[in-house]
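Protocol step 4 of 6: structure prediction from sequence.
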Amino acid sequence: MANTGDINVGSFIRFNGELCQILEYQHRTPGNLRAFFQAKMRNLRTGKLYENRFRAGESIELLRVEYKEYQFIYMEGDSIVVMDTDNYEQIYVPSELLGDSLPFIKEGVMIKVSFESDTPITAEPPTFVELEVTYTEPGMKGDTATNTLKPATLETGAKINIPLFVNQGEKIKIDTRTKSYVERVK
């Protein structure tokens, strides 16, 4: 067991029997009252946000979380299958852990998965991925003058808006956090 002084932003705790990750954590001393810690946390199973006030020195169950890089192989039902590149062991991870960045993940990409006693609790895709544009309207010469965007379909089936000068068959870099175009890849 840990106490409130051992917690930081990004820590994983068990709160009311649920796995939670600390998003914001502040120490406060209001006037002549006792000090307390104000915490904002996310439930890893449901995604709900909680706010709680912990007394200074209060005992909290701090979880030991291990991170490991796995290679994405394929989708199977509501899970993704990832492989350990060291021993070729395959693991099923619930696809909802990747959230809305799942359509931008293609086979062979490395994904960071965190475990709490052999149970996957979070999965983090790479920040940037390079994908090929499979369909978009053709661009015209001189279309770089304005900041206008057009719809495009990528090799994974995801749809995003890209600048007018990007053509079909070109590779582009995409930010998986914002789901937006970054640059063309040479």
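Step 5 (inspection) to follow. The CA atoms of residues 137 and 167 lie 7 Å apart.
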